[in-house]
Amino acid sequence: MEHIRQLLTIVGSLIIVVGAVWVAHGTHMVSLPGTDFMPKDSVWTVNGSLVAILGLIVLVGARFLLPRDHEPSA
Q1: Residue 53 domain boundaries
Q2: Measured between alpha carbons, how far is 64 from 42 in angstroms, rounded to an integer?
């Protein structure tokens, strides 16, 4: 179960980063060459916020809802 927790923690963190990048593009805080369709478009700001919230839910779920593996006491 610990491997699943670690995997979901990594996935949740990556989803948060993707959402943050989308928000940055939508608010024109970041502008990469060849990405003319995203800057200053409020749709990407909203979508990025929703994706980041989804990543936060995955991260919190992985850390607090999945049971931890306990080693048997000797």
Answers
A1: 2-65
A2: 33
Amino acid (1-letter code) at residue 64: F
Under the banding of pLDDT at 50, 70 and 90, the label for residue 74 is low
Residue 74 lies in a domain: no
- For the cut 90, the answer to whether the pLDDT of residue 59 exceeds it is yes
Give the pLDDT score at 41: 75
Helix (H) or strand (E) holding 54: helix 42-60
Is 40 within the bounds of a domain?
yes
The tally of domains found in the chain comes to 1
Q: Is residue 71 part of a domain?
A: no
- φ/ψ of 2, rounded to 5, equals -65, -35
The pLDDT tens digits of the residues spanning 7-33 come to: 999 999 999 999 999 898 888 887 767
For residue 73, being part of any structural domain is answered with: no
Residues 42, 38: Cα–Cα separation, whole Å: 9
